[in-house]
Amino acid sequence: MSLTGTPFFATTIVVAALAVLLPLLLWHRVGGPVVVRGALRLGMVVAAQATAVLVVFVAVNNANGLYDTWGDLLGTDSHVAAAPNLGADGTGGRRIGEEPRIKQTFTPAGDPEMGAGVRVTQLTGRVSGAEGEVYVWLPPQYGEPAYQNKDFPVVELLPGHPGSARDWFTNLDVAEQLRPLMAAGEVKPFILVAPRTALLAGGQDTGCANVPGVVNADTWLSVDVRKMVTDTFRAVPGPDGWAVAGISAGAHCAAKLAVEHPDRYRAGIALSGYNDPAAEPDSITAGDPVLRRETDPLWILTHAKHPPRTSLYLTGQPGDGYEDGLALRAAAKTPTRVWVHRTGGGHLNVVWKPLVPQVFRWLSAQVSGVQNTAPRKATPPNTAPQNTAPQKTAPQKTGIRSAG
Questions:
Q1: I want to staple 78 with a disulfide (CB 3.0 to 4.6 A). Which of 169, 201, 204, 348 is the partner?
Q2: Does residue 170 carry a pLDDT above 80?
Q3: DSSP state, 69?
Q4: Are 225 and 123 in contact (CB under 8 A)?
Q5: Phi, psi angle pair for 227, to nearest 5°
């Protein structure tokens, strides 16, 4: 029975109700010696409390998308088949643009809480050695005849830790919030992509990093998922049409990926994130001094050979991401641009959810829009993916200061 399914939740409620009713019915009917009666009554009380706690846990898990499966909860599932050393750029020397085009099969997600139109596939990363589910939502314009020869911009959506790839759809209602804005032309028609980020057994956070012999989470997100999307859908292949957004630990990942890979992403959105990986106790990068330093977005930004051509939108409240955003803004040099927005109300979905329209309006001014479809072949192409020049759009008036 699925951990997040309605049948399991309903079962826990029924069991909890029975656990409360049984003591009421059997309390004075328990026979035997005093010690036996006491033990049985204590057992009934403990069972009633345990089932009540279980109901609360399942409700909280369903509401916050902490664990998708029993394997995630128990820490028994690994989504890493191999983790070879892929080098500094995370490609293992492969020319990704020349790899064969392979379309992935998708099926409806079948989860009403995710909203209409979300589909899912099980992807095996050919470069990273990681595997897991990837959810995709296509904008309203995608199926219209006028857009049949057009490529669409893409945003990868990353959850916190622990967290589910479903989070942006179930907890932040990203598709339902953006659908009318896209239809009205207020927000560009982005393809939304939500890949699994919980790849390691034991409940460890990958930090979206490549750690040889452990996991290639960076390559999974920035190479394998990207290529699968451009192979399967009419998606802009170059970095000018790509962005990455995250909440909490996913916000750390979004800032890291955007700063580290300007050849793959033109913008990053980080809602209540952090720079130092040690802010997440379960991070595998926090325990190694070198990894901790080299996966810090601030360190990456200040040690880049050239300032990356990327834009960052960072939110947080004092003590929870705000100071980290200010540090990145202070360190940014043209063409890097950083916006920082101060929030309040805690480290919660109810804080991030209302920000979705605002941040996607901002994002619409940072990445390229719909483009004419570039010729694609089923066999390896002769050139790498096209890197289209960005649109020149005036910054929107958000009241947020920018550096660069």
A1: 201
A2: yes
A3: S
A4: yes
A5: -65, -40
